[in-house]
Design goal:
By secondary structure, the chain is of the alpha+beta class. Among the domains are: 1-58 and 161-235 and 384-444, FAD/NAD(P)-binding domain, CATH 3.50.50; 238-250 and 283-380, no CATH class. Helix content is 29%, strand content 23%. The protein has 12 helices and 22 strands. Helix 1 (22-32) packs parallel to helix 5, helix 1 packs parallel to helix 11 and helix 2 crosses helix 11. The structure holds flavin-adenine dinucleotide (FAD). The site of flavin-adenine dinucleotide has 39 residues, from helix 1, strand 9, strand 19 and helix 11.
């Protein structure tokens, strides 16, 4: 019981949330509105939002491109969260830059997908005046600096800073029963399902933490934790780094929107880099998706020499083997690496849809981010997955538009837990603790 001597300290909570990204923090916010719960948020870094939740494109995506059948929860969460974020940004005076996104069909065969987008936009709850389809001649006359066969303009896509958003939500948690445990990493192998306890350590000090329920929002470690708790053994994870480059000064001032292209290979996580107008009106291009062998390889291939071997032979091996003998995957992965290493290659990918773009417009690199994609023997999973066990809930493959949908997505997890009795008797979250959003906004 003595932390000074390096002995184990014991603590007990009703709920522990592992991972202080935007998902873990929004979950903690909703849980903290239930006064009777003793909650801990355990985070490996010294603060919240140090990884994907700060290292991303920063776009509140409107759900025009989300198939409501295949991405049901994300489409719902993105739509629900939009006005929640807007109200939140206004109230706390946080950056909110409604630049809009123009998504271009680079190839004639992608035109049909634009029409799917307009159908999905309405099905997902967008208003008809929030978007418009442009045919080739409209695109050419309105945006003569772009090349494409047509496009959809989503007017309400908005650039924000999700790192600032996450830290602001975290600061507003008011419950005295909420504890933040930073600099502390949960060792997946130490989780004892039978005893509902785990070992967490910050290097010097070990803590044995007992819990009634664990919520796993650990991003890069989420699958390891799920495996340890007996779940998802058919799935494995690969990491893809997205690099960004800053566009110098006020080059291409005529471009006022984010410019995306319709992905040519939706079965893989490889997209064209986008032209992004950030929340502060600075401009960047990116991200690409270069495979890396460590979840924190923000530069280079991996952090440690043995990472590639460890990644390749981590079980299950079959889904990775299938991918690594797939020629198309290998060739695309190679070209993604090309654009990580070479500013010229990255620039040329953008020049394909912005002909005026020139490599000299790129000066410094921006902040890279890493997405943690889950695969099984059928390939990449399209959607996030929520896995439920008697004493734990796990969110894996929580990739884009995860930051956009976080407030409603987290509320829906807490709502399910209330419904299933995991949080005790169903009591409605307490008004005075719901100081940003109210539960009734999401579940009227
Ligand atoms: C390049 C890129 C661009 C993107 N662009 C967009 C965008 O424009 N719009 C959008 O909506 N989404 C975007 N996304 C997706 C979005 O950023 C993510 O969906 C979201 O940030 C995920 O949040 P998270 O909380 O799950 O993960 P994270 O932010 O990664 O948080 C997980 C936390 O868990 C901690 N952790 C991990 N293991 C342990 C452990 N063992 N013990 C304790 N703590 C642990 C980590 O330190 C980390 O803080 C993008 C993602 C990337 C990578």
């Amino acid at each position: 019981m003595d932390p000074q001597n390096g002995n184990t300290v014991d603590r007990n909570y009703h709920i522990i949330v592992v991972g202080g990204g935007i998902l873990g923090v929004t979950l903690s916010y909703w849980l903290s509105t239930i006064p009777s719960l003793k909650i801990a948020l355990i985070e490996a870094s010294d603060d919240v939002a140090k990884h994907s939740s700060s290292r991303n494109t920063g776009v509140i995506h409107r759900p025009f491109y989300m198939n409501p059948e295949k991405k049901k929860l994300f489409a719902w969460a993105s739509q629900k969260s939009y006005l929640m974020w807007k109200g939140f940004a206004m109230r706390f005076n946080l950056p909110w830059n409604p630049v809009g996104t123009l998504e271009i069909a680079k190839r004639e065969e992608d035109l049909g997908r634009l029409h799917n987008f307009s159908r999905w936009a309405l099905q997902n709850g967008m208003e008809s005046d929030e978007f418009m389809i442009l045919d080739r001649s409209e695109l050419n006359s309105k945006y003569p600096f772009l090349r494409g066969h047509g496009a959809i303009l989503s007017r309400t896509d908005t650039s924000v800073d999700f790192g600032i958003f996450t830290r602001s939500i975290f600061k507003s948690i008011k419950n005295d029963n909420f504890t933040f445990i930073p600099n502390t990493s949960v060792n997946a192998k130490s989780i004892d399902v039978n005893k509902s306890s785990l070992l967490a350590s910050n290097g010097r000090r070990k803590m044995r933490i007992g819990f009634n329920h664990l919520i796993n929002a650990a991003g890069s470690d989420s699958l390891k934790i799920a495996h340890q708790m007996g779940l998802a053994h058919d799935k494995t994870m690969l990491h893809f780094r997205g690099d960004y480059w800053k566009v110098a000064g006020n080059k291409l001032p005529e471009i006022k929107n984010n410019i995306y292209t319709i992905p040519e290979h939706p079965e893989f996580p490889f997209l064209d880099p986008h032209f992004i107008v950030r929340h502060d009106n600075s401009r960047q291009i990116g991200p690409n998706a270069a495979p890396v062998f460590s979840p924190y390889a923000y530069e280079g291939f991996s952090e440690r020499l043995l990472d590639p071997l460890r990644t390749l032979f981590e079980k299950p091996v079959l889904p990775k083997l299938k991918l690594f003998v797939n020629r198309e995957f290998l060739s695309l992965a190679g070209s993604e690496w090309g654009s990580s290493l070479s500013r010229k290659k990255m620039g040329l990918r953008v020049k394909a849809f912005i002909p005026e773009f020139s490599i000299e417009m790129l000066n410094d690199k921006g902040i890279a981010g890493i997405r943690h994609s889950v695969i099984d023997s059928h390939g990449f999973l399209e959607d996030s997955i929520i896995l439920k066990a008697p004493t734990s809930t796990h969110i894996i493959n929580y990739n884009s538009p995860g930051a956009t949908g976080a407030p409603a997505y987290a509320a829906s997890i807490v709502n399910d837990m209330l419904d299933s009795g995991v949080l005790g008797e169903r009591i409605y979250p307490q008004e005075k603790l719901s100081n940003i959003w109210k539960f009734e906004e999401v579940f009227p």
